[in-house]
C-alpha cells in the first residue's frame, strides 16, 4: 500500500459524515413530539364504554356482548396504565381484566379463567380506540 494516509482520511471522512447525519436526525419528528406532549388523559368512562362493546371470549359461551363494564385506573400519566376492568356478560360470572391502553389508544385486556378450580387458560379482549377525555 503506497498511501496509507488516504485510506485513513477516507475512513475519518465517512465517520464524520455519519456523525453529522446522526446529529441532524436526532431532532426527531416535530409533529409526533407535539402530539405526544399534548396527549389528553384516557377517560375511565370512555374505556368503560369501549370495553362494553366486546364479546364474551370464554369457551362454551354464546359470545354475547358485554352488558356493562367498570374500569379503574391503577396508574398515572396520560394513559393511566394499568387498568382493572370488571366486565359483566350475559352469562355469569363477571370477568376481571387487566387492561393496557397503548399510545395509539388501542387496548388489550387479559384475564385468566378457571374450570372446576383449575386454570383453563387466558381470556383476551382488544379493540380500538379509547376516546380522549378527562379522568
Strand content: 25-35%
Number of helices: 3
Note the run of SSEs as H and E.
HHHEEEEE
Return residue spans where pLDDT drops below 50 for at least 5 consecutive residues: none
Q: List the strand order in the largest sheet.
A: 1-2-3-4-5
Q: Helix/strand-derived class?
A: alpha+beta
N→C terminal distance: 70 Å
Question: How large, in whole angstroms, is the Cα Rg?
Answer: 25 Å
The overall average pLDDT, rounded, is 82
Overall form: elongated
- Give the biggest sheet: 5 strands, antiparallel
Portion of residues within helices: 25-40%
Q: What is the β-strand count?
A: 5
List keywords for this structure.
5 strands; 5-stranded antiparallel sheet; 135 residues; alpha+beta
Written overview of the protein:
By secondary structure, this protein is α+β, with helices and mostly antiparallel strands. The chain has a domain at 44-127. The chain is 28% helix and 28% strand. It has helices spanning 4-25, 30-37, 44-51, and strands at residues 68-73, 83-88, 95-101, 107-115, 118-127. It has a five-stranded antiparallel β-sheet with strand order 1-2-3-4-5, with helices on one face. Strand 4 (107-115) and strand 5 (118-127) form a beta hairpin. The longest helix has 22 residues, at 4-25.
Write the layout of secondary structure elements.
Layout: H1 4-25, H2 30-37, H3 44-51, E1 68-73, E2 83-88, E3 95-101, E4 107-115, E5 118-127
Antiparallel strand pairs: 1-2, 2-3, 3-4, 4-5
Amino acid at each position: 500500500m503506497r498511501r496509507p494516509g488516504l485510506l485513513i482520511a477516507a475512513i475519518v471522512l465517512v465517520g464524520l459524515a455519519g456523525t453529522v447525519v446522526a446529529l441532524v436526525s436526532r431532532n426527531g419528528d416535530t409533529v409526533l413530539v407535539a402530539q405526544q406532549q399534548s396527549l389528553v388523559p384516557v377517560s375511565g368512562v370512555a374505556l368503560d364504554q369501549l370495553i362494553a362493546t366486546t364479546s364474551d371470549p370464554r369457551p362454551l359461551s354464546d359470545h354475547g356482548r358485554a352488558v356493562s363494564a367498570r374500569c379503574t385506573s391503577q396508574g398515572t400519566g396520560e394513559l393511566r396504565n394499568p387498568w382493572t376492568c370488571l366486565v359483566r356478560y350475559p352469562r355469569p360470572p363477571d370477568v376481571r381484566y387487566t387492561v393496557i391502553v397503548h399510545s395509539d389508544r388501542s387496548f388489550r385486556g387479559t384475564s385468566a379463567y378457571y374450570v372446576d378450580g383449575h386454570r383453563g387458560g387466558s381470556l383476551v379482549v382488544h379493540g380500538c380506540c379509547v376516546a380522549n377525555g378527562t379522568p
